[in-house]
Amino acid sequence: MGSSYRSDLNGGRMKSWENELRQACQHIQNVISEVWDCIGSDGQYDNAADDGGLAERLSIAKQFIEDELPKGSE
């Protein structure tokens, strides 16, 4: 029986997928940084709480992706 794509990805045997996912994580991080830079800039602090929630959810999504990538091959 062969290995799953997930185990291949985790094991570093899916380099093209790994590279794409690492780029996606970097794009997500860029958006997170932009969200944090803008929080409160409109003076609406109820919006700031909502925007903070967005940044948190993006961080969680990024972590889910990173958890599937091989460790130590960054």
Description:
By secondary structure, this protein is mainly alpha-helical. It has a domain at 19-68. It is 73% helix and 0% strand. It has 3 helices and no strands. The protein has helices spanning 5-10, 15-38, 45-68. α2 (15-38) runs antiparallel to α3 (45-68).
Instruction: Return the average pLDDT rounded to an integer.
Output: 91
How far apart lie the N and C ends?
A: 29 Å
The main β sheet shows up as: none
List how many beta strands DSSP finds. 0
Query: What order do the helices and strands follow?
Result: HHH
Secondary structural class = mainly alpha
Number of helices: 3
Uncertain regions: pLDDT < 50 for 5+ in a row?
none
| Helix residue percentage | over 70%
**Overall radius of gyration:** 16 Å
Q: Which word captures the global form?
A: elongated
% residues in beta strands: under 5%
In brief:
The chain is mainly alpha-helical and 74 residues long.
Task: List strands and helices in order, with pairings.
Elements: H1 5-10, H2 15-38, H3 45-68
Task: Give keywords.
74 residues; mainly alpha
